[in-house]
Amino acid sequence: MPPHCIRAVVTTTQPSQLNESIVNILRKQLKIGVGQTICFKIIDDQGGGGAKNPSSRSNKLHTLTLGQLEQYYSITQRYKFAIPEVTAKCICECNPEAATCRSMDYQYAACPNGNSNRMEACHRTFFDKQPITGCPTITSNSSPKLCCELKFRPYQNRTFTALKLEPASTFAILRYSAFEWSGGRWQEDDSKTIRVNLDGGTHHQYLDSEQDIEMAVNAPGKATNQLSPGMYFVENLERGSYGEIVQQPLNEITEHNFHKLGWYRIDAEDQFFVHYGNFMMDKVHHAFSEHCQDQKFQTILDASYYINHDANDSTRFNLAETLNSTMRWIKSARVVDSAERHAMITENEGSNLEVTLNAKQNEQLQFIHNASRISDFNGNIVIDRHSNAFLNITVFNASGILNGYLKEAEEIFNQYVVDSFTVYIPESMAPEKQVLVRVKPYPTNVFVKVCIRPEEGLPNSEICRFVRSMEEELVDYEVKNSWEKQVGNCPACNKFMDDFIKNLNPLEWCRFVRLVEL
């Protein structure tokens, strides 16, 4: 079954001649949008006049569809990372000479057997000159010490791949098909898919297998909608697949900014590690003792994008939504292959493509189209949570090209001020179809007049409805990081205090005297 054929606006052009040859070939120039199809037949024009008694050379219906626009981005950096779930355990020692908490064991030190578990990274930190709260007065001239051990594990075992994307190359995917009317129905007789680079120059290609129809595509240059070069990431899914591309503050491969994603990474041997953690951890981790004898302390990381294992509410942040959720022009944004060398964006919309077609000498292209239709619609105007403004309409029994406009309440009687739009509704069996149309932002909670008519419809055939404007709350990108109170466990700490209290007991003196008399 042929697709819905739009009405093409065709311009006839005459190509330059080779030397002094006289060749009667007229070229047809037109524009086509994403998802649209132009249809034509080839007719003989032996008289050379183009309109004199044209006879059909074939019953074939030829169609050309601009299937989609693709952008390919080279990936020049990549590494794997995770969101760390952090467990911090600290011990406090009142006796500065005790071996339970020494700077040589904890300052700029990794944990003993730190790499025994590939799913875990472990670092130690040391803090001297702690408050003497809870320590005996005999140690008031010396300062207690706080020794901490931090363990990092991937939160929910989710991992991601960071990608640095470079400027894009844009390609158009054109699909040619030829249909023959046979046995009371259309049957596909010929087909070809053509990918054309749009970054510059004009491309020539034959459409059909018999090389009767030549196509030239005039590349418009760089697309207006493109991602900025920089860092992006995808989630690693099962069986080597990837999720949609996401953009959020993310370290380049050589950076170690603890307030961006990507400071907790995975090496080539699948070992998790904190990037530059061996010498940066003492700067990032902060802790202090509240009561040394009772092992009470507080801890925090001067970092973002981590989860506190013992108190999830003390650390909170949002991962950004995928690009196809935040940018309406993006249909899909994904890594192309397992080699992670290219990413591809499929566009929902884009600039019209300029195409030139011509047949053989003494043949003409006759363009045909289907009638557009609509029976009714309803909708609203939305400012979404990413501040995108669009008209969200549901059309009933509609197909083809629909032309419409919007008028604000104060401009209803002013015929010179309208906000116009055109949408293409693909042919399908569904009686209802939802369409999003980019519009300018309108004030909230006002009614706007929207009118729509089929492409061939007369002005008096338009359908008008009043739609309400509304807005969604902005996405809350709160990042919370607060001090966490904990109680450590160190039976070996502060032993001298037990001995001191024990020696204050008179029974211990008597026991010592009896031992001397013996």
Automatic annotation (TrEMBL):
- Pfam families named among the record's database cross-references: EFF-AFF
Gene Ontology biological process terms from the UniProt entry: syncytium formation by plasma membrane fusion
Q: Which InterPro entries match?
A: Fusogen_EFF/AFF, Fusogen_EFF/AFF_dom3
Query: Which residue ranges traverse the bilayer?
Result: none
- Highest taxon of source: Eukaryota
GO terms for cellular component:
cell-cell contact zone
What name has this protein been given in UniProt? VWFD domain-containing protein
Taxonomic lineage of the native organism: Eukaryota, Metazoa, Ecdysozoa, Nematoda, Chromadorea
